[in-house]
UniProtKB/TrEMBL annotation:
Coiled-coil regions listed: 51-78
Pathway this chain belongs to: Protein modification; protein glycosylation
Protein name: alpha-1,2-Mannosidase
Protein's GO biological process: carbohydrate metabolic process; N-glycan processing
UniProt main location, coarse: membrane
CC annotations in GO: endoplasmic reticulum; Golgi membrane
Entry superkingdom: Eukaryota
Species, as recorded: Trifolium subterraneum (Subterranean clover)
UniProt EC number: 3.2.1.-
Mode of membrane association: Single-pass type II membrane protein; Single-pass membrane protein
Stated family: Belongs to the glycosyl hydrolase 47 family.
Cofactor(s) of this protein: Ca(2+); Mn(2+); Mg(2+)
Length: 578
């Protein structure tokens, strides 16, 4: 008979299953009942255990949430309320900027901060108020006419790192001792990027008007350099007498990078003072160059300030060419990428077509590098100075459509790998000044000194910020450790005369504090510290606030609004090897 058809004959018979005697007469049924009982007991026990375990987990998670809320509150005190708030109902309420930090980043950042403190303390002890420190002889030297170059270059680094006592002492020196009325022939380029840029950046960060006043003073002394028939500036000017000229070694020509790397600073100065004359001078240069700008966007490094002709001279993304191309992109960023600054972006994109035409790969390892060009021929040489290019390409890639954006980001990453290997390929793990590429031999050091340059670390910073790939942080850490091993001495940091032998020089370049250590510090800092959608770095790593440019280029006096202090965490350069 089928089970489905089985029925109980009487109402009393259903209670027999509760009688133990029934099961004693039927051992198989007893065994089955025992198995069912044990199974049910295990299920009940397991569910109770799971409930207890989940209660423990919930309790632990609630504690972690509480701890995270406390951490967020602490971070918000430091970062000015920019950290995402945690909603315990299951949502994360994102603020304008998210902060991500981890113990390794904190540890590395603290090491870089300690390095800055060592460099600064050495300068303070042996070269206070002078341009640069000579660590081995424990003396100062006025490489830039006695303008306190290292002090001014370091101001924003001290501020960003939260070294308040050191910053305040430097601020007092600027207010009471800094004097630009010197009978000295100054480089317009170096004075602009280091002094004007350093003072404006510190004003933007701190809101202290003394820095703006000093920036205006020195800029006024530089302005006569632009009084040429073409508007292309002379590259040298006497700070007290206003006489401008070009160096004798250029044959009277102006240098491309020196003439096209003042736009960020002088535009910013016009915006913060409401006086358009600074912006007008530097933008006239770009307007003039754009009239005959070539399709490949590549200009020789020498330009005649009287006729505007370029003549026959090398084309390079290294020394004397580099930051001209950098500023075409960064003025577009500085103006918040509006139509008012589209000309700069258009010119930059032309130049990037030219850059691509200079790209070659080494054998056998396929290192991507940027050639130099003279006339119609290419030279397989790349300066370490050109290692700013990966960061520039990464920063500019987002302005392209999807395909070109990926192409230029990939190129940036390939070039960064080459630049990192400039360091890794030497016994000291520090890069030489330039490299040559030979068929079948990859790269070899040309000029073998290292003067604490920042360009590779700068590009690693941009690539980490824009890709989130922590590999770039690891590469930067390796470079920092090489500086610590080879360049740190008891009285500061020095360059190397030879990256192969490790023989030291006697100069702590001001850009080591302004750029190299700042970019390393930011490489290990949350992206809310100097966010790239709010700040643009000049070529000396001085961050300037992004200000939206309106059509017509009307200059507004931003100083009419109270400057908001910046929240903190707790051309390149003419290097000297003497």
């Amino acid at each position: 008979m089928a089970r489905g058809n089985r029925s109980v004959s009487s109402s009393s018979s259903k209670w027999r299953y509760c009688n133990p005697a029934y099961y004693l007469k039927r051992p198989k049924r007893l065994a089955l009942l025992f198995i069912v009982f044990v199974s049910v007991s295990f299920v009940v026990w397991d569910r109770q255990t799971l409930v207890r375990e989940h209660q423990v987990e919930i309790s632990e998670l609630q504690k972690e949430v509480s701890d995270l809320q406390n951490l967020v509150e602490e971070l918000n005190k430091v970062h000015g309320g920019t950290v995402a708030k945690i909603d315990t109902k299951g949502k994360t309420n994102k603020s304008t900027k998210e902060v991500s930090d981890d113990p390794i980043d904190i540890q590395r950042r603290d090491k870089v901060k300690e390095a800055m403190l060592h460099a600064w303390s050495s300068y303070e002890k042996y070269a206070w108020g002078q341009d640069e420190l000579q660590p081995q002889t424990k003396s100062g030297v006025n490489s830039f006419g006695g303008l306190g170059a290292t002090l001014i270059d370091s101001l924003d680094t001290l501020y960003i790192m939260g070294l308040d006592e050191q910053f305040q002492k430097a601020r007092d020196w600027v207010a009471n001792s800094l004097d630009f009325n010197k009978d000295y022939d100054a480089s317009v380029f170096e004075t602009t990027i280091r002094v004007v840029g350093g003072l404006l950046s510190t004003y933007d960060l701190s809101g202290d008007k003394i820095f703006l006043d000093k920036a205006r003073d020195i800029a006024d002394r530089l302005l006569p350099a632009w009084n040429t028939p073409t508007g292309i500036p002379y590259n040298v000017i006497n700070l007290s007498q206003g006489r401008a000229h070009n160096p004798g070694w250029t044959g009277g020509e102006s240098i491309l990078a020196d003439s096209g790397t003042e736009q960020l600073e002088f535009i910013a100065l016009s915006q913060r003072t409401g006086d358009p004359k600074y912006q007008q001078k530097v933008e006239n240069v770009i307007t003039f160059l754009n009239k005959t700008f070539p399709d490949d966007g590549l200009l020789p490094i020498y330009i005649n300030p009287h006729s505007g002709t370029t003549g026959y001279s090398p084309i390079t993304f290294g020394a004397m060419g580099d930051s001209f191309y950098e500023y075409l992109l960064k003025v577009w960023v500085q103006g918040n990428k509006t139509s008012a600054v589209k000309l700069y972006r258009d010119m930059w994109e032309k130049s990037m077509k030219g850059l691509v035409s200079l790209i070659r790969k080494s054998t056998p390892s396929s290192f991507t590098y940027i050639c130099e060009k003279s006339g119609g021929s290419l030279t397989d040489k790349m300066d370490e100075l050109a290692c700013f290019a990966p960061g520039m390409l990464a920063l500019g890639s987002s302005g392209y459509g999807p395909d070109d954006s990926q192409k230029f980001m990939s190129l940036a990453e390939e070039l960064a790998w080459t630049c990192y290997n400039f360091y890794q390929s030497t016994p000291t793990k520090l890069a030489g000044e330039n490299y040559f590429f030979h068929s079948g031999q990859d790269m070899s050091v040309g000029t073998s000194w290292n003067i604490l340059r920042p360009e590779t670390v700068e590009s690693l910073f941009y690539l980490w910020r824009l890709t989130g790939n922590k590999t770039y942080q690891d590469w930067g850490w390796n470079i920092f450790q090489a500086f610590e091993k080879n360049s740190r001495i008891e009285s500061g940091y020095v360059g190397l005369k030879d990256v192969n032998s490790g023989v030291k020089d006697n100069m702590m370049q001001s850009f080591f504090l302004a750029e190299t250590l700042k970019y390393l510090y930011l490489l290990f800092s949350p992206s809310s510290i100097i966010p790239l959608d709010e700040w643009v770095f000049n070529t000396e790593a001085h961050p300037l606030r992004i200000v939206t440019r309106d059509e017509g280029g009307v200059v507004k006096n931003l100083n009419e609004k109270k400057q908001k202090p910046f929240p903190r965490i707790g051309g390149r350069k003419e290097g000297r090897t003497d």
